[in-house]
Amino acid sequence: MASLISKIRFxxxxxxxxxxxxxxxxxxxxxxxxxxDSKGGTTFRAYTDLLNAPGFMDSLTLSLELAGVTVAVxxxxxxxxxxxxxxxxxxxxxxxxxxxxxxxxxxxxALTTGIVGVLRWGPDYLSDTPLFQTIVxxxxxxxxxxxxxxxxxxxxxxxxxxxxxxxxxxxxVTLVEAAxxxxxxxxxxxxxxxxxxxxxxxxxxAVLTVALVLGEFTTASILGFAPFSVWISxxxxxxxxxxxxxSILSLLIVWVVLLLMSAVGRGRKSARS
Amino acid sequence: xxxxxAPASGASVVTGGATVxxxxxxxxxGATTALDGLDLTVRPGELLALLGPSGCGKTTALRxxxxxxxxxxxxxxVDGEDITRIPAHKxxxxxxxxxxxxxxxxxxxxxxxFGMRMRGxxxxxxxxxxxxxxxxxxxxxxxxxxxxQMSGGQQQRVALARALALKPRVLLLDEPLSALDAKVRLSxxxxxxxxxxxxxxxxxxxxxxxxxALSMAxxxxxxxxxxxxxxxxxxxxxxxxxxxxxxxxxxxxxxxxGERSGDGVEVLGRRHEVDGELPADGALDVLVRPENxxxxxxxxxxxxxxxxxxxxxVTRLTVRLADGTEIKSDLPTEAAAALPVGSTAxxxxxxxxxxxxxxVATA
Lengths: 273, 363
Ligand SMILES: Nc1ncnc2c1ncn2[C@@H]1O[C@H](COP(=O)(O)OP(=O)(O)OP(=O)(O)O)[C@@H](O)[C@H]1O
Ligand SMILES: [Mg+2]
Known about the structure:
Order of helices and strands of chain B: EEEHEEEHHHEHEHEEHHEEEEEEEEHEE
Helix content of chain B: 10-25%
Distance between the termini of chain A: 40 Å
Distance between the termini of chain B: 25 Å
CATH class of the largest domain in chain B: Alpha Beta
CATH superfamily of the largest domain in chain B: P-loop containing nucleotide triphosphate hydrolases
Number of helices of chain A: 13
Oligomer: heterodimer
CATH architecture of the largest domain in chain A: Orthogonal Bundle
CATH topology of the largest domain in chain A: MetI-like fold
Shape of chain A: flat
Bound molecules: adenosine-5'-triphosphate, magnesium ion
Strand content of chain A: under 5%
Number of strands of chain A: 0
Radius of gyration of chain B: 24 Å
CATH architecture of the largest domain in chain B: 3-Layer(aba) Sandwich
Number of strands of chain B: 20
Structural class of chain A: mainly alpha
Number of helices of chain B: 9
Number of domains of chain A: 2
Number of domains of chain B: 2
Structural class of chain B: alpha+beta
Largest interface: A-B, 22 and 28 residues
Helix content of chain A: over 70%
C-alpha cells in the first residue's frame, strides 16, 4: 500500500518534471540568449531598446483598452442572456449554446476576410447614408471598434463555456426564488445573490477573453491596425536578440495582466469572508 | 414502518397567524393538470400537512401561494385578501425549499439577516435578530460558517431561521427534510413542530411521507391528482378515511373480496356491519388494517403464512387465501412465533371493516 502511494507520487513527480523541462528549458535558454552580451557578461540592451522604441506604450495601451472593452461588451451581452434563459426559457439553452459555439467553426482568416470585404464594399454603396459615417468611425485607428466586434465574436465560445460552467454549479432558479422570498425584487436578487456566486465564472470568462485579445494577431494585422501583438512582430525583427526579447516581454506582460486579474478577483472574496 | 403517533393535543393553542384559503384553484402545464380545482382552508396557527403521491400538485399549490407560480383560475386568499396581484417579494410568506437553498457566498448569519438587509434594517439590529434566530434553531455557534461548511440538517435549520426572520404570516415548507438522513429527519421534525407551536404561525408542510404528515400536523390534507381527497386530523384520517385512496395511502390496508349481504357485507363466511353507505353496485372489497386482523393457528386452516417481517414489538405476517388474496396481520411478536412461514391459520376480522370499496381487479 505504502509502496503504491510512493509509486504514484514518483509517477506524478516524473510527469511534472518532464513538463517542467519541456517549458522551462526553452524559456530559460531564450532569457539567457536575450541578455547575453557575447563577451560572457549580461546586458539588458535588447529590453531597454524595446521599451524605448516608438509606439511601444501606444500599442500596449491600445491592446489593453481593446481587451477591456471586449470583456465589457461580452459580459454585458452574455450574462443577461444566459440568466434570462435559465430563469425564463430553459428551452432556449441549447439554441444559445449552438449560437455561441458557431464562431469556433469559422476560421479567423475567413472571418477577417469577410470583415475586409464589408469594409471595402460598404463605403461604395452606403456613401449617401448615415451608415457611411459608422463604417468610417469603427475603423478609427486610435480605437478600432471593428476589432472589438471581431474579438467579441472570437471570444464568444470561450466566454460562454466559462459562464455556463459557473452557472451549472449554482442553482440559479432556487437562489433567485429564495432571494425573492426574502423580500428582494428581481434585480436585487440577481445583483445580491446570483452575481456574487458567479464571481469565479465571470473572472474565468474575462481572463480567457483578455488572453485571446492580447495574443490576437491575424485580424489586427490584416485589417492594418497596430495593437501590441502587431507592433511586437514588426519591431522585433531587426536583430536576433531583440526578437527573442520581444517574445519574452509579451509573455511576461500577458502573465502579469492575468495574474493581476485573478488576484483582484480573489482578493475581494477573501476580504469579505 | 414505525408507529404513527398523533400530536399531543388535537389542536395546538392558536396564538395568531393568518388564514389561508385555496378556492377552486386550477393550474395546467401543457397537457398535465397540476391542480384541478383545489379547495382547502388552512386555519390560523395550525400546521397543515399537504400529503399525496408524487405529481399530485403539492409543490404547485405551495409555489402559487409563495408567488413563484401562477394559477389559471380560482383564488388564493390570505386573511380574506386575494394575493394574486402581490409579487413574490411582498407576499410575507417564509419558505423553506426542498433543495439546499442557502446563499453560498454568505455566512449562516448573513443568510438569516438577508431579508432584513433587503428591508433596510440597520446592521446591528439585523445581526442581533439573526443571532437570536440561529439560537432559536439551535445553531448559535455556526453563525460564521458558510453553507458548504455545514451538514444538510444544519443548512435546513438555517433556512428555517431565514424563513422566519421577516416574521411572515405564513410558513411554507416544501419537503424540507427529504434530503436528510433518517435520524436527523426525526429530530428536525420535532423541532419544526416545537417552533411552529411556540410561534403560532400558520404553516403548510408538503410531504409525501405519510408518517411525517401524521406525526407532525394538526390536520392532514390528502391530495390526489390536483384535488383534495380528505382533510382532517391525523387520527380521524387513519381511523375513518373518506375514500379508499386515502385509506390505502395512509397506513397499510389489505383488500379482501366480499359479498353484498343486505346493507352489510359477507367476508370469509361471516357477515359484517358497515359504517355508512355501500357502493351502489358492483362487486365489493373490504379494507382492513393489519392491526385489526387476527390469526389463529389452525392445522389445515384456510390461510397460508407466506412471509413474516419483524417490526420490533409486533411482527407483520402476510397470509394467502386459496383464491390468491393476500392479507396482512400485525401480531405481537411472541404470538407470531407460533405461526412460522408455511403454517396455516384462520383469519379473524374486526366487527366493522375500515371501509368497503368497489372491487379493483387484482393483477
Ligand atoms: N414548471 C412546470 N412545467 C411543467 N410541468 C410542471 C411544472 N411544475 C409542475 N409540473 C407538473 O405538474 C404536476 C404537479 O407537480 P408538483 O410539483 O406540484 O407535484 P408534487 O405533488 O409536488 O410532486 P412531488 O412529490 O414529486 O414533489 C406534475 O405532473 C409535474 O410534472
Ligand atoms: Mg414537490
